Amino acid sequence: MGPVIIECAVNGVTSKASNPHVPIEPSEITADALACIAAGAAIIHNHIDLHGVSVERAAERYLEAWRPILAARPDALLYPTIHFGEGFAISYEHLVPIAAAGLRVGLTDPGSVNLGGVGADGLPLGNFVYSNSFQTVGRAFDICRQARLGPSLAIYEPGFLRTALAWWRAGQLPQGAMLKLYFATEHGYLGAPFGLPPTDRALDAYLELLDGCDLPWAVSVVGGDLCASPIAELALQRGGHLHLGLEFYRGDRTPANVELVTEAVSLCERLGREVATPDQAAEILGLPKRRP
C-alpha cells in the first residue's frame, strides 16, 4: 500500500466558544494550515466567515488566507467549501476564480441530506436540507473539469457514492477525484445523526459499492474523534486515507488541528504506512497539472 493522504478540515461549524483553537480569521487559517502541513497533512480544507456575498468576494476571502500559505509552501493543496449565496443558495461558481489563482483541488458534494439538531425529546429538528441536485452536481463536475481541479467528493450517505460512481462509470468524473467517506456518530454535524455509523460493517458496505473502482478514498468521523475510532485503523489496513480536523471533531478535549494531524501520523507509523507529502498526494490523486 502506498503513502497515506492526511487531509485536515481546519474549521466549519465549530465555534471558538466550543474550541478556542479553531481558526476563523484568514491569518489564523494561514498559521494553522502551515503548522498542519509541517506536521504531516497533505491537503487543507477550510470555510470562510462570510455568507451571502458574491462569488468574487468569497474567492478573495479564501485567497486572503491561501496566498501566504502558497508563498511559504508552493506545494500546498488547498480547497474551499461550497459557496453559500443569498438565502443560502448553493453553488460552485467560486471555483472558477479560485482555479485562476493557481489552486489544484476543487469539490463536489454529490447528493442531498437533512442536517439539523436534536430536541429535548430526542427527535431531529430543523428545516435545512443540504441540497445538491443532479443538475448541480453535473455543473460542479463541469467546473472542475474545465478549471483543471481535482474534485474532493464528500460522501455523507451511500446515495452520494452511487451518484459519484455513475459519473465515474460513464467516464465523466473529472481527473484527480478523491472520495471522503463520512461516518457520523449520534452527534452528526449539527446534532442529528445521518448516514452510516463508524463501524467495520459500515465500511464494508462502502467498500462493496467501490468494488472494481480505483478511486482513492478516505474515512472521516463526523461528530467524533477519528483516531480514537476503530474506523481509522481499519481504513489504513485496507488501503484508505484519513480525513480529520476541527470541522468534524467532537470529543472530551479541545485539541488544535495540528494535534489531530500528529495523532494521525503516529497511527500511520504504528501501522507501517508512510505519510504522503503534498506532492505525493497530488501524484496519488492524479491531479491535473497547473496551467503555465
Helical residue percent band? 25-40%
Mean pLDDT reading: 96
Distance between the termini: 33 Å
The backbone outline, from C-alpha atoms, is globular
**What is the CATH C-level name?**
Alpha Beta
Helix/strand-derived class? alpha/beta
How much of the polypeptide forms β-strand, as a percent range? Answer: 15-25%
Q: Rg from C-alpha positions?
A: 18 Å
Number of domains: 1
The tally of helices reads 9
- The CATH architecture would be Alpha-Beta Barrel
Protein name: 3-keto-5-aminohexanoate cleavage protein
Cofactor: Zn(2+)
GO molecular function: 3-keto-5-aminohexanoate cleavage activity; metal ion binding
Keywords: Metal-binding, Transferase, Zinc
Summary tags:
292 residues; alpha/beta; TIM Barrel; two-stranded antiparallel sheet; 17% strand; Aldolase_TIM; 3-keto-5-aminohexanoate cleavage protein
Protein model, in words:
Its cofactor is Zn(2+). Pfam families: BKACE (PF05853). The chain is of the alpha/beta class and 292 residues long. The chain has a single domain, classed as TIM Barrel (Alpha-Beta Barrel), CATH 3.20.20.70. The chain has helices at 26-39, 55-72, 95-100, 134-147, 158-169, 200-209, 230-237, 257-270, 278-285; strands spanning 6-9, 43-45, 77-79, 83-84, 90-91, 105-108, 113-114, 117-118, 124-125, 129-130, 150-155, 178-184, 217-222, 241-244. The strands form four sheets. It has an eight-stranded parallel β-sheet, with helices on both faces. Helix 1 packs across helix 2 (55-72) and helix 1 (26-39) packs parallel to helix 8. The longest helix is centred in the N-terminal third of the chain and has 18 residues, at 55-72. The relative contact order is 0.18.
